[in-house]
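Sharing a chain and its predicted structure for anyone who wants a worked example. Both blocks are below, sequence first, tokens second.
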Amino acid sequence: MEHPSTTLKNSGFHAVIEPDRWVNGAYTLVVDGTPQSHVNMDDPSQLFFEYVQRIGHVIDQIGDPGEPITAVHLGAGAFTLPRYVEATRPGSRQQVIELESDLVDLVRAELPLPKGASIRVRHGDAREVVKKMPPGLVGSVDLLIIDVFSGARTPAHVTSIEFYREAVALLKPSGIVAVNVADGPGLAFARGQAATLLEAVHDVAALAETQILKGRRFGNVVMVGSQEPLPLDWMPRLLAGGPHPSKVVTGRELREWIAGAPVSTDATATQSPPPSKGIFQVKPGRS
């Protein structure tokens, strides 16, 4: 059975939308053989990937429950988190930046966005578009999500201190940035990203499955940061929300976890490491 798909003009990657075999009304977006997004069209508040669930728990802690927020998403995927924000905080104002216009067209055609949702899409490279955001948005954003991938890897130019400073300038003082970082054993890239984000904002916490944070296997670490101290009462709530087992590292423990990793600059930045074959990848032609 042929699934809706397209070849992305910018990267040349193949993108396909596949129905979830186990959940009616749910779909997975696969790009270059890597599952990038999962959406439950019948219940957008249901999040599937572990790291996305962790970001969802962070979103739930912002302001009062159900209160509309202003959010900027760097990286669209299948619009999983913009849909989540709209479902849990109706009336929110959201901006989504995506380089691959063909991907946006595919997703909007096959998995339409909620009617009446205030979700504006800006096309282009995340770093370049961030510099050109409307002046009224600068310093007024409650939530900034950085989840930029080209296939299975994050491009180097959106991992440097120069980029992070440009991006977090959008946040209000109490605003939250959440960064999805993928890394493998040893966590050299993730530790460097934590050091870099901590150079750009006042307070940072790292949230992930316990074995990933110990550097024992490849996976996703969610970095959460703010110019104001992160509320201490968030930490047990984020842990309680699952998926389990999980751990939050912050404060002195975070600095010990960083273990002297250098801050990434435009001159030294590298793209994230590739996952080992078979970890995320889906075989071409899977039905």
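Comments welcome. The mean pLDDT is 94.
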